[in-house]
Specification:
Shape: elongated
Radius of gyration: 17 Å
Helix content: over 70%
Number of strands: 0
Number of helices: 9
Order of helices and strands: HHHHHHHHH
């Protein structure tokens, strides 16, 4: 079971990286959603076309509606930054969470950061729940090798009880079906 879950995440990361980099083999058939996501990336980055965030949002929106996780992630970031659309944290979090729930490491990292920030302005016990959820999402991103997630997770853990850290690790394990010792990926 653990090998299956890790294999799934490796394939998912590899696919997302190749789509983002535009390096899929030439003979690989692309779905409409994947083509739309690539077009969105071109518009967002100004790669061979004039940078146009509104066009990027349009492409990402169409692909995200077809459940394309990279498009969901990119759309969430654009809503968070207010590029091509009015800034809307609630919509941003919806798209980021959808991508995170499907295993996108960058989205998991972003959701973890936002849960951590949300916990700063809540009274207990809501703040504790935010910390546990933030830890879970950051832990999931760490397991996939997200380069910034480890530092963020360890920084977050400094403000957590042992019980909260253990619960965050348990939730990450329940999410993937693989038991996690919360701080063992050092």
């Amino acid at each position: 079971m653990a090998i299956m879950a890790l294999s799934f995440f490796r394939r998912l990361i590899s696919r997302a990286e190749t789509v983002a980099a535009g390096t899929l083999p030439a003979n690989t058939p692309l779905s409409d959603a994947e083509m739309l996501c690539r077009q969105g990336l071109k518009f967002a980055n100004g790669d061979g076309v004039a940078r146009d965030y509104k066009q990027a949002v349009d492409c990402y929106q169409k692909a995200a509606n077809e459940n394309h996780i990279e498009a969901q992630y990119q759309l969430g970031l654009l809503y968070w930054q207010g590029r091509g659309v009015p800034r809307n944290e609630a919509i941003a979090l919806q798209w980021l969470r959808r991508a995170a729930e499907q295993g996108h490491a960058g989205a998991q990292y972003q959701v973890g950061l936002r849960r951590h920030r949300a916990g700063k302005s809540c009274p207990e016990p809501e703040a504790s729940e935010c910390r546990v959820e933030a830890f879970k999402w950051l832990q999931l991103a760490v397991v996939q090798g997200h380069h910034e997630a480890r530092t963020s997770r360890e920084f977050l853990a400094l403000d957590m009880t042992r019980e909260e850290v253990a619960e965050g690790g348990r939730r990450a394990g329940a999410f993937t079906g693989v038991a996690h010792t919360p701080m063992d990926e050092r």
